[in-house]
Amino acid sequence: MSHHPSRSDTRDALEGIFGPGGELSRRLPGYESRPSQLEMARAVAEAIETRSNLCVEAGTGTGKTLAYLVPALASGRRVMVSTATRNLQDQLLTKDIPLLQQHLFPRLKVTYMKGRQNYLCLRRLEDEREGWLPLAEGPDPSTRIREWAAASDTGDRAELAWLGDEDALWNALDARSEICTGTQCAHFERCFVTRMRRRAFEADLVVVNHALFFTNLALETDEIGRILPEFAVLVFDEAHEVEDVAAGSFGVRLSSYQFKELERDLLQAFARAPSLARALGGLRRAADAFFDGFPATPGRYSLNFFRDPGGEEVDLRDRLLPAYQDLAQALSWVRSELEASSDDPPAREPLLRRTGLLRASLDEVFVSNEPDQVYWFERRRRQGLFLSVNPIAVGPTLREKLFSRADTTVLTSATLTAGGDFGFLRQRLGVPEPVELILPGEFDYRRQAILYVPSRAPEPGRPGHLEASLESIRQILEITEGHAFVLFTSFQQMTRVFQALSFDSPYRLFRQGQMPRNQLLEEFRSTPAAVLCATSSFWQGVDVKGDALRAVIIDKLPFQVPSEPMVAARVHRLEQEGSNAFYEYMVPNAVITLKQGLGRLIRSRDDRGILAVLDVRLRRRAYGRHFLGSLPNCRLTDNMTVLRNFFQGGASPANGGFDQ
To answer: Are 657 and 642 in contact (CB under 8 A)?
Structure first.
């Protein structure tokens, strides 16, 4: 993989791999040469050779994964691929990459990396044996983990199928950075994170996820937190997710749970230190008073532009300043007692580190007041309170930390443009002078799909909208005999529709939250005539081919909630700059999300079905044309008879309900 061919050599080589009668056609049963796949592969190769950035919108069916992997791996440079969803990460590692290793790159070294919290910490496991960490109820779980740790090569919790997602035992054993002592740890050489890093530094291809990538980028000066190797070629698959993930990583976050967890671990590590116990009592009282001072209503709210029950806009940080000062003082007291303690367990350094990080994060939220940052909090019903500080715009940060140092960055997805233009992505992410390519999907939407949009129903939020939507949903489900996704922009609306359908639907209904996501999808696929009601997490990264899915119904245009702190701050910033925030931010963002949701339907050349958006604003409002112009080129109707005729393969009368 060290040879660097000329551009003409590369083009010929790619033609010999992807073209008719090429390597993939000869070696893979059922492989069909696709012009768009070859065009994308050539664009990726060109970007790598010229050290350019590339944005590619590759429609469903293009085969974009192989189109970026083959030229990237052939370049001889270290490649890092980052995905937004676990499904795509698993597909890469279990399907696409093994296929390339078998047929094209037999000596390819590959590894995957996850966030540190996915790996077992051997020091914490030893602490658990000695009683410094909370034992699980009964000896069996911790015994099973010790036996697994002795045999595992990775220490990845995904190998523990019996361990629940929220199991408290794992929280006491994971390798998160704030509890790590790095090279000072006695287990450093055997550490699963150390082993993961070494595999990555030896690999030609490293597969990560967006969250890990940007967390690592934010921690680049932290030798303990930073785990990713250097790379020459970076590919963001599902790149439409990058802005929100990056914004969440370049910031500060702390929670009420972190204070409880710190108190628990300090008490167990320094059980015989009465002065520290008194300091911890003070910390507990101060933390309770501080977090109880926030509004009790679940949801996300701005800290510095909070509207109180009387409608007045206030800065909660001013109101809670005395409680913050008491909590900061209590943390300093704990830290002083910890430093002065005569006991010296191995847990001292990471506990000191955690105490310092909590104090620094608390100060960041309450002391700083940067105009480029969003200060907000989230109250969750069962998980307490979270405080966050995040950048309003990530473009300048990505320009400095990412695009200025990567040789080539490829951003790709089936949905990157709005109205056939990359301007929204380019501006939001700060991509400098990218090469841009839009590749249509390989599917014939005029033949395979029809788009239903009502013309007479009430608009969302108006009286009668829910009833009209339910009537449309029932009629479409009758036409397709179930076999549908019904996707919602809010959990509340999903619950209402699900409950209403449950009274009289002849089809088996599933609802998001009934069971784990993958299990829910498997149940949907294997159940005849099933209907799945779901919210945002099912709008992307979900692949149901064939007859199991005949319709995707979306309740309304997926505009972001204007009161969400991050959204409100971005809109306010754009308006301050003289931009039309609605058309330059809200509409393009919703267009890309809608394209993702509707993209669940047609996943192969044999798929056929109904796309429905139950929002008359697509027809009535001026911005509707921005959405319609970005959607698949399929026929548009508001007539249920036309839908029935299309689905049953019947002929329609002249212009029979089709929009022109």
So the answer is: yes
Report the candidate in 49, 91, 43 with the shortest Cα–Cα distance to residue 68: 43
Of the candidates 438, 427, 415, the one whose C-alpha atom is nearest the C-alpha of residue 584 is 427
> What does the angle CA 83 – CA 354 – CA 333 come to, to the nearest 5 degrees?
155
The pair phi, psi for residue 153, each rounded to 5°, is -90, -25
Q: Read off the pLDDT of residues 311-365 as tens digits, 9 standing for 90 and up.
A: 788 889 999 999 999 999 999 999 998 888 766 666 677 788 889 989 999 999 9
- Report the candidate in 527, 496, 491, 526 with the shortest Cα–Cα distance to residue 509: 527
pLDDT band at 652 (very low <50, low <70, confident <90, very high): very low
CA separation for the pair 638, 455 (Å, rounded): 6
- Percentage helix, strand, coil for the chain under 3-state DSSP, each rounded to 5: 50, 15, 35
Q: And the tokens for 351?
A: 């506990």
Query: Contact 285/333 with Cβ under 8 angstroms?
Result: no
Q: How far apart are alpha carbons 120 and 187 in whole angstroms?
A: 12
CA distance 41 to 46: 9
Encoded amino acid at 605, one letter: R
Kindly list the distances between the CA atom of residue 238 and the CA atoms of 56, 245, 508, 566, in Å, as whole numbers in the listed order.
Answer: 11, 11, 31, 21
Q: Distance between alpha carbon 78 and the CA centroid of its chain, in Å?
A: 24
- The Cβ of residue 492 has, within 10 Å, a number of other Cβ atoms equal to 10
Which pLDDT does position 486 carry in this prediction? Answer: 94
For 20-76, how does the pLDDT look when each residue is reduced to its tens digit (9 = 90+)? 888 888 887 778 888 999 999 999 999 999 999 999 999 888 889 999 999 999 999
**pLDDT reading at 543 higher than 80:** no
Q: Which sign, positive or negative, has the C-alpha torsion 620, 626, 632, 634?
A: positive
Q: Residue 343: its pLDDT value, please? A: 67
What gap in Å lies between CA 614 and CA 313, rounded to an integer?
35
Q: Name the H helices within 527-630.
A: 565-576, 581, 587-598, 617-620, 624-628
Q: 20-52: string of b/e by CB count within 10 Å (b at 16+)?
A: eebbbeeeeeeeebbebbbbbbbbbbbbbbeeb
Question: Is residue 197 within 8 Å of 229, Cβ to Cβ?
Answer: yes
What is the pLDDT of the chain when averaged over all its residues?
Answer: 86
Burial class (CB in 10 A: 0-12, 13-18, 19+), 85: middle
What is the predicted pLDDT for the residue at 653?
42
Sign of CA dihedral 86, 87, 92, 93: positive
Q: Read off the pTM.
A: 0.85
DSSP 529: T
The pLDDT tens digits of the residues spanning 602-645 come to 877 888 899 999 999 999 999 999 999 888 888 999 999 999 99
